TrEMBL record:
Name of the protein in its database record: FAD-dependent oxidoreductase
Protein origin, superkingdom: Bacteria
Family the entry assigns: Belongs to the ferredoxin--NADP reductase type 1 family.
Domain FAD/NAD(P)-binding: 3-163
Keywords on record: FAD, Flavoprotein, NADP, Oxidoreductase
Cofactor(s) essential for the protein: FAD
Organism encoding this protein: Sphingomonas kaistensis
Length: 435
């Protein structure tokens, strides 16, 4: 029997477990510092994108397969080290994702009112680390820095009415705060132009269907229409949507606007003890396609600034780390002997949820090659050794059965019509269940 520990219970971790199960003769423990599984699916996907979250049903089947355990509330570094995992398991797979926000690196990026997208998304998705974030929604102007789908998610969530969250699983504290939000102007800043966005048609199209907000795009920001033919089909469709927004006159009946400000580089965030404005420099594309400052600057009012410029994996003591790329140093997923990385921990924050599947399967193949199914025993006892270690340290993991009970309680609460509380009340749910 081969023993494998996977650190992280998001898509990359579950795809790896699924791949390992195909060859058999394996026991897999999936560890997570949170008491619930699914990682990015639960805390990164927008609450109004339920069709995307449905992939969790696939992961649930994996978690319920004999030979697989989910252990929540187990902190790598605090409860167990990578060295100890390597002592008990034949292979260790790092599937931690990239949960840390990259800093803007401009003056004022630490002012109150400036938040990273990981924090803001975690706040409205019920991540316990960000339950007390309290973004300043009492302001009228918000600026979102970035030209990817996360920026669109943040803008859309800020712009929606309470009625538009019906059918979502947005948490109660965010639902209530957004319901009384005073934000009326949302500006999305991008250093380059419409042809360089990383936004997909589905997310862009949703902005045109909002009840109380309309997208605004400056027609002068586009290159000649004939140049769109060189774009790939998805990108071309996104640009078509932006051109449509630019060609649609404002109807003036919606109280909120979402303005795309292209060719705009943030230079600084200013304010008297809190964010009040973003100083922006107008840019132009050079021959190499990169944005360069023109020297023309202007100020955008901003009581809330959300940075959506990328993420990084958390450094782990003793694990080689690539500072420039914000991920674990690896070669084709191999970090060091018997230690692997998958997903964003391997590639950096790129790709879609499905992009993680090939990572998991390639690492599973590498583990199969190093420890063939039915091969000689290594003497490592996996779960038995880990359980004794955790018990000696007073760590009481949340197992998958406990998580199913938590989820059932949440679903029952949601059926009353109230938004879910998610992890905000997890300690109470566990206590009530006698855990």
């Amino acid at each position: 029997m081969r023993h494998v520990a996977i650190v992280g219970s998001g898509p990359a971790g579950f795809y790896t477990a699924e791949a390992l199960l195909k060859s058999g003769d394996v026991a897999v423990d999936i560890l997570d510092r949170l008491p619930v599984p699914y990682g990015l699916i639960r805390f990164g996907v927008a609450p109004d994108h339920q069709s995307i979250k449905a992939v969790a049903k696939r992961y649930e089947k994996v978690a319920m397969t004999p030979g697989v355990r989910f252990l929540g509330n187990v902190h790598l570094g605090a409860d167990v080290s990578t060295e100890e995992l390597l002592h008990y398991y034949d292979a260790v797979v790092l599937a931690t994702g990239a949960p840390l926000d990259r800093r803007l690196g401009i003056p004022g990026d630490d002012l109150p009112g400036v938040v990273g997208s990981a924090a803001f998304v975690g706040w409205y998705n019920g991540h316990p680390d960000f339950a007390d974030l309290a973004p300043p929604l009492d302001q009228e102007h918000a600026v979102i820095i970035g030209n990817g789908n996360v920026a669109l998610d943040c803008a859309r969530i800020l712009a929606k009415t309470p009625a538009e969250f019906v059918g979502s699983d947005i948490v109660a504290h965010a639902f209530e705060a957004l319901g009384s939000s005073r934000i009326r102007s949302i500006t999305i800043l991008g250093r380059r132009g419409p042809h360089q966005i990383a936004m997909t048609p589905k997310e862009l199209g949703e902005l045109g269907k909002l009840e109380a907000a309309e997208p605004m795009v400056d027609h002068d920001d586009f290159p000649p229409a004939g140049t769109d033919a060189a774009l790939d089909p998805g990108q071309r469709k996104s640009v078509d949507l932006l051109r449509g927004y630019a060609a649609t006159p404002p109807d003036g009946t919606k109280p909120r606007t979402i303005t795309f400000d292209f060719f705009a580089k943030p230079l600084a965030i200013e304010g008297d003890g809190r964010a009040e404005r973003v100083i922006v420099e107008r840019t132009a594309l050079g021959p190499d396609g990169q944005a360069r400052g023109t020297g023309q600057t202007y100020a955008l009012p901003a009581g809330l600034v959300i940075s959506c410029i990328g993420y990084a994996s958390p450094p782990i003591p003793g694990v080689p780390y690539d500072e420039a790329l914000g991920r674990y140093a690896n070669r084709d997923g191999l970090v060091e002997d018997r230690m692997f990385a998958v997903g964003w921990a391997r590639r950096g924050p790129t790709g879609t949820i499905g992009t993680n599947r090939p990572d998991g399967f390639s690492v599973a193949e590498a583990i199969d090659a190093a420890f063939p199914p039915g091969g000689a025993e290594t003497g490592r006892n996996g779960a038995a050794g880990l359980d004794r270690l955790l018990a000696s340290r007073g760590c009481d993991p949340v197992l998958f059965a406990d998580w199913q009970r938590i989820e059932a309680a949440e679903v029952a609460a949601a059926r009353t019509g109230a938004p879910r509380e998610k992890l905000v009340r997890v300690p109470d749910l566990l206590k009530a269940g006698g855990h």
